Amino acid sequence: MDFFGALIEKVHRIGFAPLSPSEKSKPTYTLHNLIRDQIGMAERKDVQIKSNGMKKSEEHITSDTADVAFWEYKTLRKFLSSVHDILNDEASKIVGKPTNAIAWSHDSSRTQTEVIQLLEMSRMSYPDIDAPKPASKRALANSMIQKRRVEAAIANTIAVLAANGAAYGDILESCADQNLDNEGLLDFLDKQVIASNSDTKKVDNDSLVPRQLVISYFNHKENSSSADLKTPTMCQYLRSIKNSNNLAGNSESTLLARLAANIKISEFLNDD
After folding, report:
1. How many Å apart are CA 235 and CA 264, to the nearest integer?
2. CA separation, residue 87 to residues 26, 118, 132 (Å)
3. What pLDDT, in 10s, does the model give residues 140-155?
4. Could you tell me if 247 and 176 are in contact, meaning their C-beta atoms sit under 8 angstroms apart?
5. Buried b vs exposed e over 231-261: b needs ≥16 C-beta within 10 Å?
6. pTM for this prediction
7. What is the pLDDT of residue 222?
């Protein structure tokens, strides 16, 4: 089935309703969740609600995870941008002025019939849009924090490389040698995964190095001098650790100690 046709079928089957200000999720689709569900970026969760004084469980549809949490995130991002552009154009025709379709769909008065009309117009205008293959989420490393950020995606990808045989010290050293922003570093690591033919479903869930890397990096950012014109990247942060001693060849316990020591040092240097 074509992309917009599949969305229409989902709305007929599951339903649509905008979120009220007090709601975080619901069992029916929003336009945002509907689009992402079709390409595998939505999730289901059990939510306890009160009804007639009794608690019951509902399955809610959510899609709060950032695109960087998925492999091939740039393909997904490009496709989502195209879909939103199409919907914006068609919503603008309905309203009679430039309109953001997602914002339009969030109006509390918006009906399922209106949303289906928008999707049917989009289908007529773009019947052959090619959807990407279903999204595949990056494996989550042990106790990872900041799950929706690019920094967590970097750490999780490092944990995948480690699970496939790479040493943490070697990986961190190679990152320190780059001059990339954080999303560029994620792309660099993704290329390493492809080049090494790594199994993307394997993740190191024993080591705390990936988690500590994120904690230490965010601490480093917070403690950076206010005189700095730019927020330090993860590459710059790792380079600052490498400058005192190479990272390659170090044991995981040594790496953890150095990351933790970096927190203490930066806190001391910025303590007034």
Report:
1. 20
2. 22, 7, 18
3. 998 888 777 999 999 9
4. yes
5. ebbbbbbbbebbeeeebeebebeebbebbee
6. 0.87
7. 84
Give the pair of three-digit tokens for residue 78: 């490009």
Under 8 Å between Cβ of 152 and 146 = yes
Tokens of 1: 């089935």
Rg (CA), the chain: 22
Report the 3 state secondary structure along the chain.
CCHHHHHHHHHHHHCECCCCCCCCCECCECHHHHHHHHCCCCEEEEEEEEECCEEEEEEEEECCCCHHHECCHHHHHHHHHHHHHHHHHHHHHHHCCCCCHHHHHCCCCCCHHHHHHHHHHHHHHCCCCCCCCCCCECCCCCCCCCCCCHHHHHHHHHHHHHHCCCCHHHHHHHHHCCCCCHHHHHHHHHHHHHHCCCCCCCCCCCCCHHHHHHHHHHHHHHHCCCCCCCCCCHHHHHHHHHCCCCCCCCCHHHHHHHHHHHHHHHHHHCCC
What are the phi and psi torsion angles at 83 (to 5°)? -65, -45
Residues, the chain, total?
272
